[in-house]
Amino acid sequence: MNENANPSSRPRCKGGLSAGRVLPIFILAAGFAAFFVFDLNSYISLNALKTHQDQLKLWVDNYGVLTGVAFTTIYAVAVAFSIPGAVFITIAGGLMFGPYLATFYVVIGATIGALAVFVAARYAFQDFFREKVGSAAKRMEDGFRVNELSYMFILRLVPLFPFWLVNLVPAFLGVSVRTYVICTLIGIIPGAFVYSLVGDGAGAVLDAGGDLNLAIIFEPRFIAPIVGLAVLASIPIVYKRIRTRRGMPAA
């Protein structure tokens, strides 16, 4: 019997962009569009925080842990839909819960949301990306995988690139889910804590009639620890390159 006579028996092309593959990305894109269509962006700003600060604190007082769960869920959805302004949600968290609890909620929510983007992008586009880019993609993957833990930590610690972009690129470069989750979970802690500190002090500033100023995050006391952690993360990369140039096998 000729196997080619039955189309269903033919192997499916991995690199194809079927409707099933693209559906998760379509859902995330639709959520992003809906955010602006329904004018939800008006609720994510410093002005909105000033307007609703009393209500936010009241929710925490009345509902406690449930408010924390709701906040974490909202944060995860915001990150999954790549909604701009997550920094203002973090500041709101600091105002509501204090710097430590807010950092915990933000890190959990951001990690869940980032993982959703990562899985959706890898499922939809990784094979397609490899097929289109070819050998160049293989070289990029190989280079990244040699030090993927260090590279991922650097990308998470140093905000050189938008958070949504750092969520996507590792999906195309074959980064393991385990490495992605670990580096996201740990790597975003410093930044989340800094913005939560800003939020923690926001209530007192606003009550005194002052204005919020994000310039505080560029002060050495906040920047220095983050830069220091990024330098530590880069040490394994530099070490391996030095050994390679000297003709020594990489450890």
SS summary, helix count: 11
| Integer-rounded radius of gyration | 22 Å
Structural class based on helices, strands and sheet pairing: mainly alpha
SSE order, one letter for each helix or strand: HHHHHHHHHHH
Largest sheet: none
Residue runs with pLDDT of under 50 for 5 or more positions: 5-15
Helix % is: over 70%
First CA to last CA: what distance?
54 Å
Task: Return the average pLDDT rounded to an integer.
Answer: 79
Total number of strands = 0
The shape, in one word, is globular
Strand content: under 5%
Outline the structure in words.
The protein has 251 residues and is mainly α. It is 75% helix and 0% strand. The chain is built from eleven helices and no strands. The protein is globular and about 60 Å long.
Quick tags:
single chain; mainly alpha; 11 helices; globular
Outline the fold blueprint.
Blueprint: H1 19-37, H2 46-63, H3 65-80, H4 86-97, H5 99-133, H6 135-146, H7 148-157, H8 163-172, H9 177-187, H10 189-207, H11 220-245
Helix pairs in contact: 1-5, 2-4, 3-4, 3-5, 4-5, 4-10, 5-8, 5-9, 5-10, 7-9, 7-11
